[in-house]
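Working notes for the structural subgroup meeting. M.R. asked for a predicted model of this chain before we commit to crystallization trials. I am recording the input and output together here so anyone reviewing the notebook later can reproduce the run.

Input as submitted:
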Amino acid sequence: MGIDMANTYSQIYIQTIFAVDGRLSLIRPEFKEELYKYMTGIVRNSKQKLIAINGMSDHVHILIGLKPSMALAGLVQDIKVDSSKFINKKKWVHGRFNWQEGYGAFSYGHSQLDKIINYIRNQEKHHRRRTFKDEYLAWLQKYEVTFDEKFLFKGID
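Returned structure, recorded in token form:
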């Protein structure tokens, strides 16, 4: 039996960040747009709102307007599993493509949206100055997220 959400009104904005397994630079510019369109479709088919998506060759940022009836973990799992299958079916990489286990998730208020959308859209500019590892550690520290660094970055250092 489903949950009656008729009188539920919400405003939940979550940025998720996840990396290619081993932090390998496998998301090539020539298929990035098609991959992001596919990921957008996964979010929309889950009846959620994709607000912004972008990334670099080794990671992706997705800003989602999340409905309270959707578990974020399930949505991220669907995005990662389905997009991995899509990349493998397209044979965009040699061998098997996988996303690294886990992800980062950070929430925002409506007044912060313009700033975070701009940040996601300008990934190339940000990463000229800062590596993904430095960026991710900065997010965790800014939001006071407790973490164990030995589990964060499988495959680098």
